[in-house]
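[job 4471] stage=fold_predict status=RUNNING
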Amino acid sequence: MRRLVTAAWRARTSCSTVAIALAAMPFGVLAQDADLPASQPEETALDADVIVVTAQKRSERLIEVPIAVTAVSGETLADAQINDTESLVRAVPSLSYQQGNNPNNSAFRIRGVGSQLFGQAVESAVSIVVDGVVVARSSQGFTDLADIERVEVLRGPQGTLFGKNATGGVINIVTAAPEDYFTGSIDATIAEGNEYRLKGSVTGPIADGLNARISGFYNDVGGHLRNIATDEDVNGFESWGLRGKLQWDNGSPLTAMFIAEYRETDANCCSRVPVRIETPAIQTLLGDIVASPTNREVSNDNASYSNSKVKSASLQLDYDVGPATITSITAWQNYEIATQFEPDQIFSDPVRYVGPFPYSQWNSNVADTYYDSYTQEVRIASNGGTPLNYVLGAFFAKLDMDRSLRRRLIQCPTGTTIGALCDVPVRYRSSGFDANFQSDSAAAFGELDYNIFGGLHLIGGLRLTYEKQTVEGEAIAPLVPGDLIFAADPNSGRDSRSDTALTGKAGFRYELSGDANVYGTYTRGYKSFALDATPNTDFSDNPGLEPEHVNSYEVGVKYRTFDGALNLAFAAFRTDFTNLQVQALDTGGGNLQVRQLNAGKSRSQGFELEATLRPTTWFTLPIAFTYVDAKVNVAGQTCARQDQASAPIFTDNFPSNVCYRASRVIDGNTVVSDPIIDVVDGNLPSTPSYRVNLSPRVQFPLSNAWDGFILGNVNFQSEQTFALEQDPLLVQSSYTIVDLSIGVESENLKIAGFVKNLFDTNYYSQLSHGTILSNANNPFDLWANIPKDADRYFGLSVGYRY
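[job 4471] inference complete, writing structure tokens
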């Protein structure tokens, strides 16, 4: 039988024998694919179908790693038009993405576990690691996936080896390494909606033992929503980036990798779409827009943006001492982001009368974040060959962040006609803050795997973490003399806090054969305390949040047939969180109040099944199924808008899952709360109970020089809520998205046409009640964040390798 020319294509672009196997397995051989790190000698790859990863910071066969891991090759991501980290949810069913008003308010979740609040002083629960360097804040990790070797998603707490911000899991991104021969690539994509993408790389030797690689990308993606007020498309973006790598490997025990990168993104983001409007005044203000689930029109001042820049550099040194390798990774990251979100989401410049509401225009809501991060990791990892495998190391990190916010609202106090230009003097309300956040952390960690007899291995690990945080800030109100104060009184101050935590892991794995393993683990995780640095912070008294604690249990089975025709991975898990860090958000009544607090606990439990079938050389079928039962108990949340007007008053025996007002006597005075709800066994937001992924690929010869291929991607997810307070109006119904690619490829050239969302299935990435005129009297208006692929669109991609 003639060898498919695809093998030649991939051989020219891979970095190792294992990478060739990985690239040939669409959608990752979910939980069964990855490859050797660049520093691993090529001859240690056992077989092209035996996949090796570094999920535990040492090279191991994936089937032997007692962690649920999904690995996806860069080529598989490119074939499926998965162009950025946010789109990884199409490849990893246990991963979900919660979109906010800007990257700072967006987050990943793994098995339902992720950030429940979005202050920049608070770390994410899902760690993003790029080429061995932990990204300081998750918003920095929302990036283009250009020139990627692979992406690994490690599910469940990974704090023993990856630190205090990995209680949900880790997204580990490995970029392509330099080669010792000259090669390169260029890829171009054009799609409906004025979408243009270009990326390329060139690599090769520049001196004896010194190899280099330069990668770059440019994206210009037009807006997919129409702003009828300004007559332009919105919610598009333009981005570009460059990455350079130098690898020193002259055959001696010492190797080195230096990486420098620069990225820039300018986004016209994120206008919300009215999908349900029942308040007559809002409909008047929106003009001719017809709110519906499929509406793609907005009417605002197009004042929202999110512009960011990332600069980073790292140096990795590896020294092979025979039985072990000593590794040092030194890194610097600089991140700056300027965001402006237009909360009113109406055309309000010039100011119009909207009725009796605290503001008529809210276009000024500017936030700036700037930080430098320095990290140093030193570790020693065994090279195998003995019953004892280990990783021992130390980690140091320093973060210095400046954050500022300026908000100014305008009110037209009186008028006779909704929507008419304001003909009386307007009133201004304003506030802001300037804050500096610094953190210093240090950790010592170790993890052992000891083969005591036969196929039985015992696993144990510990991590001792020290953290110190300091916040110095000033709340400014008003910003302009004569303005009224908005939301927060002026204050200033400085607070410091430190903590030490011991976490760890224990378990076993049993090697039934070289192709079958079972394992069970217990993990104790920790997410550090957090000092507050938000618009509502009282900097003169800032105790911050207590740390979260995590107990996680997992059992799993990994199996592959000798010929690789079937790869199978099953994991069952339960994770319990206590002292959960959450935020209470109230956008009603003209205020945007965010309170950070420790409240309650959460639980995530379920199972995952991932398999890849290869019944023939020309057909591959990856299948993934995830069931997650993710519940949360949290008191004091602002309850659903539509329940607030009728909320009864309770003095004791406060109810659960019911909107009420709490009456308490404090210092001799009776104080009645705003409408709140104490959630018990509520659903964690952005966490569907069921997700299913099917990614069939058919590959067939067309001639001696050309192959054809058809790649499908089917993603189903069940109903999910967007609101921690369990608002029944803020629920996304179940849906299925089908993507399809059809193309041809030769040794050097690949051409593919694709369609995203083949059956034009509508869905939302976020749903809310909005802000303008939003209160208990107008509770049924809904606004949605809608991604581009909520509508069907077609495109064409062309790739050339040389």
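[job 4471] summary: The first strand starts at residue 52 and ends at 53.
[job 4471] exit 0
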